[in-house]
Amino acid sequence: MGDTEQVFVKEAFDTNWVAPLGPNVDGFERDLQEYTGSAHAAALSSGTAALHLSLIMLGVKPGDTVICQSLTFSASANPIAYLGAVPVFIDSEHETWNMCPDALEQAVKDLTSKGKKPKAIIPVHLYGMPARMDEIISIAQHYDIPIVEDAAEALGSSLNGRKCGTFGKLGILSFNGNKIITTSGGGALLSADEALIQKARFLATQARDPAPHYQHSHIGYNYRMSNVLAGIGRGQMQVLPQRIEQRRAIFSFYQELLGGIPGIRFLNEPKGCFSNRWLTTLLIDPQMTGGITREDIRQALEARNIESRPLWKPMHLQPVFEGNPYFGGQVAEKLFEKGLCLPSGSNMTAPEKERIAERMRQIFHLK
Ligand SMILES: *Cc1c(COP(=O)(O)O)cnc(C)c1O
User: Fold this and answer.
1) Are residues 133 and 95 in the same domain?
2) In this structure, is the dihedral angle defined by the CA atoms of residues 358, 363, 364 and 366, taken in order, positive or negative?
3) What is the pLDDT of residues 282-329, one digit of tens each?
4) Residues 254 and 329 in one domain
5) Which of 18, 88, 286, 314 has its CA 20 to 30 A from that of 110?
């Protein structure tokens, strides 16, 4: 946390705005709009809720198909299943680890030819790295399919100067406890289309029609953000630039430490890409490290009480999505096999970094 979160939270208590609406919610939405350049924003209870509402507003119905990046957190795909629709998974490409435009086009063509034209495309900016939006947008426009952009991990990342979350018809953010800034739990929906954001607010507050009594002509949800948590969000927005600097400095630290080792590869920023470096990730190729595998490193770190994790396990390999359509090759699968997420908390101390460095030097027999 920064210095001002408690000031905004105290204000909520002092003014008795302890509800899923109020001045902090309005203020947080304004902050998000200003920062991302999105014309409109709705603060919601989670990123998952933002995805769910997006798909509802795009008219996703049982039996429909929705395209989703395979290499991601399950929350990208689950809302498709909430609606009884079928997630169709797409492989990654090497440069960004995100949705492969070629596999996407193949999927759209195949599904459309079978009368199952996808209702939406969900690309993800994984670990803060912008996806190849130019190509993805051009495919989406050609086939007239809306994009719901999962920018849950990419607040502050940009592509050619434009912030992630503002490329799709709808974009989602997350402020869950593990994200670059947090409201403990929370999310937001971004869009240039004011009517969509107004509809999202309506659906997120139990779809109450304008009437003195409680009148409903739609199924509603309880998905709005609390004014108390939005106070945390307003304070967090003030430290976001600093958090991005800290995360990028952590990336540089690891790159300096490990970048020269044969078989270790970092995810570089392709031209035009700016990553918030939410997590520092690397690939380990045992054929070049003298047999040292991802699991060897993970376990050697764990033995010193240093937590690291494999990359997200692709959705097309998850038991819950067994048998779902998948387009592409084995890029995501190989990334999962070789990839490791390193400790990347903004609050990592110098002694903690040194402890990691010392262990890495042991693992790789460095001086
Ligand atoms: C965290 C995350 C979400 C979901 O956000 P919540 O606020 O936790 O519901 C969705 N997609 C990705 C890629 C995420 O990392």
Assistant:
1) yes
2) positive
3) 999 999 999 999 999 999 999 999 999 999 999 999 999 999 999 999
4) yes
5) 314
217 and 299 belong to one structural domain = no
320 and 342 in a single domain? The answer is yes
Centre of ligand 1 to C-alpha 210, Å, is: 32
This prediction has a pTM of 0.97
**159: nearest Cα among 328, 273, 56:** 273
CB atoms within 10 A of CB 9: 20
Q: State which ligand 1 atom lies nearest to the alpha carbon of 150.
A: 11
pLDDT in tens, 286-297: 999 999 999 999
Single-letter amino acid code for the residue at 347: N
- Domain holding 351, by residue range, is 240-363
Tell me, what amino acid is at 138? S
Spatial distance between the Cα atoms of 134 and 93, rounded to a whole number of angstroms: 14
If asked whether residues 143 and 202 sit together in one domain, one would say: yes
Ligand 1 atom nearest 49 alpha carbon? 9
Q: Are 341 and 278 in contact (CB under 8 A)?
A: no
Which of the listed residues 222, 238, 254 is the one where a domain comes to its end? 238
Cα–Cα dist 147/187, whole Å? 18
Bridge partners of 86?
65
From the alpha carbon of 126, which atom of ligand 1 is closest?
Answer: 13
CA 77 – CA 230 distance, rounded (Å):
26
C-alpha 336, offset from chain centre = 17
The helix or strand, by DSSP H or E, that contains position 326, with its residue range, turns out to be strand 326-327
**Which helix (H) or strand (E) segment is 74 a member of?**
none
Helices (H), the chain: 5-14, 23-36, 47-57, 78-82, 101-113, 133-143, 194-204, 227-258, 294-302, 331-338, 350-363
- Ligand 1, atom 14, lies closest to the CA of 152
* 124 membership: H or E segment, kind and range: none
